[in-house]
Structures are given as structure tokens and as C-alpha cells.
Amino acid sequence: MKNSNQKIKTAGVRAKNPCGDVEDAIFVHRLKHGLTSIKWSLRMILSEDFGKLSGEQKDIVEKDLEETDKLIILANSMLDEQSDTKSFLDKNLCYPEDIVESVIKYYSTKILDKKIELKYAKPDKKIEAFLDKEKIKICIQNILDNAIKYTHEGGKIIISLIKNKNNLQIKMHDSGIGIEESHKRKLFTKFFRGTNAVEINKDGSGLGLFIAKNIITEHGGNIWFESKAGEGSTFYIELPIKYKK
Fold it and tell me: Model-level pTM greater than 0.70?
């Protein structure tokens, strides 16, 4: 199993310049994420998944799709200009399991559309931690979004939340396409996308995991993965449980 798995920890890896480019990248990435969701919905409407459309209605949806594509292209060009820089955290007391649940709810339609079986295991007692709730949410979104995109219809995703003595671990496993051995060391680098991922989704920015790594590193945590091509992937997020800012 050691030959097929890759564990990459990012503790101590800091961004180079103390300015806000990663903040900008996160904003644009979220904007693109929302636009992609709109595009997904418009395509479903155009395919008449929700009922038959008149010719006029089809014309309107097609124009909206075209405009959405233009905005996605603009977002991609903005992302291309971002640099590897430090993000800034706004930590407050929160419940990590609630963050995970909100992300699962957000993706519920896509999960149902692909007939993916999703299981979520969490502790009986709520966990309290000082985290930047919005940025941790972005991190989980980025990983779950990949899991949904690259898991075939009828596949499985398992999310578990585990509390150790001083740490919280979020584990996300999928039965998707997995990661090629030659791609593993590049996975958290900016703009990198595996060839098998590009074949399935040509519109990706290659920034989701880069942003996730920056967010977790700024929290003093670790992020790593285990994967084998064709057999799925498991991503681990480990965060220190702190009760003070």
C-alpha cells in the first residue's frame, strides 16, 4: 500500500509575500464556483429536465448560458494573475460539523443527480474550535467539489469527522478516478491539473487545492491525501483545536 499512497503535509509552509493576492484568488474562485453552478442549472433547464421549453424560452436560456461562459472566462483570466501570497484569518468559535453539513447541503442536488451515495459520520458530541468558518468552508467545498466531479455516476463519497486529543480531523474519501503517481507531488501547486481530471472537466482553474492548502496552513494545520489511479482518493484535513484566538 505504501507504493500506491502519497502523504503530503504542509505544516510550516508559508506564503511568500504579506499581501492580499490569495484573498483575491479566493474571492474570484468563489465567484467562478457560483457561475459554474448557474451554468450547470441552465444546462439542465435547456435539456428540458424540468419541463418542455418554448422556442423563445430556449433562446433566452441559450443567451444566458453564453453570458455565463463569458464571465467564467473572465474569472479564469483574473485567477491567472494571482500570486502565491498569504491569506488573512478571521477566527471565531464555531462547530466544524455544522460547516461540513452546510457544504453537503449545498451540493445535495449534484450528489442526487449523479446518484452518488454519500455517508457522513460525525461525533455524538459537538466539537468547538476557533477557526475562520468561511475559509474552512471554502476548503471543504473545494475538496468535495472535486470528489463529486471526478466520481462516476453511482459512486460513493464518505466524509468523517474525528476528534483526537488536541486535533480535529476531517476525512473525505471518494471512489472516483484517483490521482496518477506522477501527479501527486504537484497536486497542491497553483494551476496544476492532472491529465485524467482535464479529460473529465476542461473548465477547472487548478486553484482549488492550492487555496485549500493555504487556508489549512494558515490555521496551523496539515492537509494530505492518499490515492491510487482508478481507485479513488482520500483527503485528510487536520486542524488544531484551540479555544482562544
Answer: no
